[in-house]
Structure prediction request, 358 residues.
Amino acid sequence: MFSAKSLKFLKDLMTSSGPSGFEEESAAVMRDYLAGFAKDVHTDVMGNTIGVINPKSDFKVMLAGHYDEIGFQIVYISEEGLLYFREVGGIDKITIPGTEVDILTPKGKVSGVIGKKPIHLTKPKEREQALELSDLWIDIGAESAKDAAKIVSIGDPVSFKPNFEMLGKHRIKSKGIDDKIGAFIAAETLRELSSKKIEAAVYCVGTVQEELGLRGAETSAFGINPAVGIAIDVSFTTDTPDIQKKILGDIKFGSGPIIQRSADNNSVLIEKLKKAASAKKIPIQESCGHRASGGTDAAKIQMTRAGVATAIVSIPNRYMHTQVEMCDIRDVENCVKLLTEAIAAMKKKDSFIPCLKK
Prediction:
């Protein structure tokens, strides 16, 4: 079970706001926590936050979890003082009307709600369709454009209102679990490894702009130049209605982190993860994911410089890219255990070149 300090970090990270390209608040939470046990903690020019242990080793392992989240950005203020916006990242338009939001301004957060025409005034056919974002607006209670412009500006980022909560004994609900939970796991793994004697220099990276094209992973991996890179992200559960197991596999809450098997994964590294899970009796699940390549930070890390041995380890997630994402804290705990054990067992002499056994 995580300590009270770790759980506070989890809550602080989940309730921070950081739409892609505007991750400063999440970066500050990450920096403050890593500073308690890591060396050379810093945020780079892109906004990635990096902490390292055992930095003198020339065998480098990179852990990456992106702490950017989907959100919006203000593009126009109407005469009525209503704010029109565009999406930042992949938005599920059906879930958006009625959402509470925060506009992130240089002077602080401004509360608002996403409004639309009342259902009573819509035609029956309109009620069956998802509204375009251009048909929605954010209401901050302003009485005019002049009134609104006193507190918000064109270009201000917008995030979902923080809503972290425990549901039942083991499950957490929050906006931004994709992928602040991965950043949390990377940090917790680094903390666990900081008290062990290991051969690798381990770099924990909270990456940025993943939702816009894996951008932070590309630059941070180039700077670190790791031999091994592990991306921690979320993946779909198939334990809710109408998600086909024959397409995505049998993935359940509480059954362990998912070891993804795709072109983005080094086969030698995957076997090391599975060996660690078996040796320590850590439950894991295996999946091919929903695509053969791409979609996570591992895709960019793998292609860095002359190539990196990469793996994707995922946390089962429900309601992805909505305001109420959910995961099971037991899967998170077991992911930290898995990564800690696997990295502690790695040696400088290890080869990650895939080859057939003779």
